[in-house]
Amino acid sequence: MFGKILIANRGEIACRVIRTAKKLGIKTVAVYSDADREALHTRLADEAVHIGPAPSSQSYIVIGKILDAVKATGADAVHPGYGFLSENSNFAEALMADGVAFIGPPPVAIEAMGDKITSKNIAASAGVSTVPGHMGLIDDADNAVRIAGQIGYPVMIKASAGGGGKGMRIAWNDTEVREGFQSSKNEAKSSFGDDRIFIEKFITQPRHIEIQVLGDQHGNLIYLGERECSIQRRNQKVIEEAPSPFLDAATRKAMGEQAVALCKAVGYFSVGTVEFIVDAERQFYFLEMNTRLQVEHPVTELITGIDLVEEMIRVAAGERLRITQDDVTLNGWAIESRLYAEDPYRSFLPSIGRLKRYRPPVEGRREDGTIVRNDTGVVEGGEISMYYDPMIAKLCTWAPDRLAAVDAMAKAFDDFEVEGIGHNLPFLSAVMEHPRFREGRLTTAFIAEEFPDGFSGVHPTEQQARGLAAVAAFLNLRQQTRGVLISGALANHPREVGCDWVATLAGFSFNVSTREEGGRVIASFDGGTSHAVSSDWLPGRSHASFVVDGSPLGVKTEAAGSGWRLRRGGMDEIVYLRSPRVAELAALMPRKLPPDMSRMLLCPMPGVVTTIAVSEGDAVEAGQALATVEAMKMENVLRAERRGTVKRIAAEPGSSLAVDELIMEFE
């Protein structure tokens, strides 16, 4: 077994590898850039080595700097995590040449499977079902348009060395092919240092299902079931689960056996993932193979009980697999949700800044038998940088069945506090409550179909609004009572607490009266409806566990003027509690309208302007590309919302802009 492992990565995956290494008694070395000097993974490792400036092209993907860190620390093995150099065969070969073990597959397999064009040809030769497409390299946009026309629209433009949604575009016509081709090349070059592009047929209404494989250096290969990764946005996975709610035993076996056949064709060992597109008739087609640990590996660990990082380390050390295919059993259901630093209310655009509050739910087994796991690489007070992937954490839940795992995830979201940056937690909560998701009717178009106009929060039903009003009435009564006790003690005279209020939220208005009864607050509404509320909440707490009519409820709470901001289940509402007379007057107050910004193009996220596609005085049409902004390795094309004329351009290529900073103005 190894004595010291260097993790050539950052963030949550570096922390994840360190955790298993410590369990095995292996010392660890972290590497870090300027932006990660105080990062969590540097604190958890036994040693930490600085490797350069913040951009990954000057630090995390510079092979020479990683090799220098290995030599300086005497590490005898390197775990690459995922992304960065994890699928770089030159890196693996360089380590082996220095007598250092690469905790991953052999370089020849990385090279063969890491190139999506080569991998599809090998898959076809190995008898694996593949998607129709053009597997040769494409030199320019004109050639891309010609090939797309031959394949037939829609098509998927993909980076040959790509992964994680980088360098991928769906095109439905010639214009989109031309734009997507160049954007894909740019992203591929920036993320992987390889701008080769290919095109394949895009299968409509597909499900994205992948097979986890595991093999040793002695020829033993097995598959560990599947994961469904169909909930995606911009080709980036958002929610994964294991097993898939769609596969039957026969399809699972067929996919698993084809995945193993592909691995054998390239002499594969270590962990890996063979990804498939599956249509409505359960016909499956090889998509790609990831020759590394996947982001979503925890759900497989939760249903199999196998520590995949440990198996990678043991295989790299030359050990044989400790299990056979017959030993693999799938127990229960697991779901993983990726918490991203992105603003769901602004088309999921990236968000950066300081984590003013970061309080994940308590990990471990709950009283109801469910399990909560949170893989993360951040801490409260840390910075979310524009230089790296925007993932903050991977929240996972396990339960005996799928709906129980979904409910456990929804509850964990209500207990998860993140403040200071935009994040997608409200959106993830909304997905957990969505009827189609709960039924398991998934495709990779789920988000586009169910949220076609973007995400604007969850509007509460009348029953949900009444429940939030009851919670606010509890908070109001406890706060008022506390104020009376303090003022009475100071002024030496009593003051009564009002019991009749008007609660308004989300377009609803309720007359509610409150009273204390047996340690609970009884909130009585017009019509005779009452809710009994109890909680451990104290003034100043930003989160509390409530019990409403016997049902537990996690709610994020914040005082907001004459009301309370309450958040749960994707809902974010201010509940105003006013006396009847004040409520009557408040209804007469005019509403302040937001300023008209329709003549301005503002930067929707912190990023760098890479192109300005128009000039001052140009007439533009609706949908025309105006500028491109790069943030967190993704290019975002900004388009005109309607016809107009460019009056002034305030930014230029290379400008670093903050959110809502002016790019151009229209007449």
Task: Give the mean pLDDT.
Answer: 92
Number of domains in the coordinates?
Answer: 6
Q: How many β strands by DSSP?
A: 40
Provide the structure class.
alpha+beta
CATH superfamily of the largest domain: ATP-grasp fold, B domain
Radius of gyration: 27 Å
Question: Would you mind describing this structure in some detail?
Answer:
With 667 residues, the chain is of the alpha+beta class. It folds into six domains: 4-103, Rossmann fold (3-Layer(aba) Sandwich); 106-131 and 206-331, D-amino Acid Aminotransferase, Chain A, domain 1 (2-Layer Sandwich); 133-201, Dna Ligase, domain 1 (2-Layer Sandwich), CATH 3.30.1490.20; 335-445, ATP-grasp fold, B domain (D-amino Acid Aminotransferase, Chain A, domain 1, 2-Layer Sandwich), CATH 3.30.470.20; 462-586, 2-Layer Sandwich (Glycoprotein, Type 4 Pilin), CATH 3.30.700.30; 600-666, RNA polymerase II/Efflux pump adaptor protein, barrel-sandwich hybrid domain (OB fold (Dihydrolipoamide Acetyltransferase, E2P), Beta Barrel), CATH 2.40.50.100. It has 17 helices and 40 strands. The strands form nine sheets. Strands 14-13-10-11-12-15-23-21-20 form a nine-stranded antiparallel sheet, sandwiched between helices. A hairpin with an 8-residue loop joins strand 7 (155-159) and strand 8 (168-171). It is globular. The model has no long low-confidence stretch (mean pLDDT 92).
Question: Main attributes?
Answer:
D-amino Acid Aminotransferase, Chain A, domain 1, 28% helix, single chain, Rossmann fold, 17 helices, 8-stranded antiparallel beta barrel, 9-stranded antiparallel sheet, 667 residues, 6 domains, Dna Ligase, domain 1, alpha+beta, 40 strands
